[in-house]
Amino acid sequence: MSGDSRTNQYAADLSSIEEARSRINSVIHKTPVLSSETLNAMAGKRLLFKCECFQKGGAFKFRGASNAVLSLDEEQAAKGVVTHSSGNHAAALSLAAKLRGIPAYIVIPNNAPKCKVKNVKRYGGQVIWSEPTMESRQSTAAKVLQETGAFLIHPYNDARIIRYSGQGTISLELLEQFPEIDTIIVPISGGGLISGVALAAKSINASIRVVAAEPVGANDAALSKASGRIITLSETNTVADGLRASLGDLTWPIVRDLVDAVITVEDSEIIEAMRQCYEILKVAVEPSGAIGLAAVMSDSFRQNPLWNDCHNIAIVISGGNVDLDVLWKALGKS
User: Fold this and answer.
1) I want to staple 92 with a disulfide (CB 3.0 to 4.6 A). Which of 62, 225, 296, 320 is the partner?
2) Does pLDDT of 163 surpass 60?
3) 255, 209 contact by CB (below 8 A)
4) Residue 112 phi/psi, 5° resolution?
5) Which residues are catalytic?
């Protein structure tokens, strides 16, 4: 093992991620890694798809949410948990709370995808609506906290999500399944997923490249990396509803230091990657989950000599909770 010594500076390290795996191992799925010779030929690289769309709740978020819930003591847990989320974290926390037998209060913006709201209700979460702004989400969640005394589990900027849990366990599995991986491409939004993946991967092998994939219409991470400080956008515009959040103060230092590059892609490229996942890989993915493939297939990746020596590329398919009505409309326009 030849790790990166910088990874002990942050909200997590390899030992804490390994502790997280021990805590959640009995409740999560060890997700498969799929490949396609057709997609390999199209990309000119060996592509290995880590299918978190097959995780409980349909997305990687269950790893972090289950560990956050399981790490609460009995007194904290008895009052339940609360979060604000437009999608997969909301469903994941609802399911994790259900498995522990505690209430989950979920603040959801009123423009959230219908399929993700249905998942929250299916898993027993109590839905509280907010306006589709971060200010409204946070203020509504604060009100619920005051009324219930529940414990706040932030969707991404939370040490239990990054440090003690879940997202880093993806890298532990992935590098056990395929140790020869030299590059990992990960969707980026609030940064919780890529922070955990980067911390674990670079602790195991410092030479691994970790690359973020981001929509052009929500490119705050790319702007932040370029400027060396957190840049927030007043509004976002992308079909990838799971990639509209901004980096947090816990995730930003990890993204700043350990993420090697950010590749931005247009929505049309994301939709085409979704089509390729459905038609070639035979896997149902949401836009946020398809963006890694879109990045590999993009001209900015294929024509950049920086990536010429990337041969075994892992792509994290972050989730598969797609609103089919939106999908049909998107595919019809592509």
Assistant:
1) 62
2) no
3) no
4) -65, 150
5) 61, 86
For residue 21, what are its two tokens? Answer: 């795996």
Query: Can you list the positions of beta strands (E) in the chain?
Result: 33-34, 46-51, 81-84, 104-109, 126-130, 151-152, 183-187, 209-215, 261-265, 312-317
- Summarize pLDDT for 221-270 with one digit per residue, the tens: 999 999 999 999 988 999 998 898 889 888 999 999 999 999 999 999 99
Entry pTM: 0.92
pLDDT at site 327: 73
Tokens representing 149 are 């005394």
Task: Spell out where 56-190 has E strands.
Answer: 81-84, 104-109, 126-130, 151-152, 183-187
DSSP assignments along 273-314, one per residue: HHHHIIIII-----HHHHHHHHHHHSHHHHT-GGGTT--EEE
Residue 293, token pair as written in the block: 């493939």
Summarize the chain as % helix, strand, coil (round to 5): 50, 15, 30
What is d(CA 247, CA 16) in angstroms, rounded to the nearest whole number?
22
pLDDT above 70 as % of the chain:
94
pLDDT digits (tens, 9 = 90+) for 22-69: 999 999 999 999 999 999 999 999 999 999 999 999 999 999 999 999
Spatial neighbors of 37 by CB under 8 A, at least 6 apart, are: none
Tokens coding 152: 């706040």
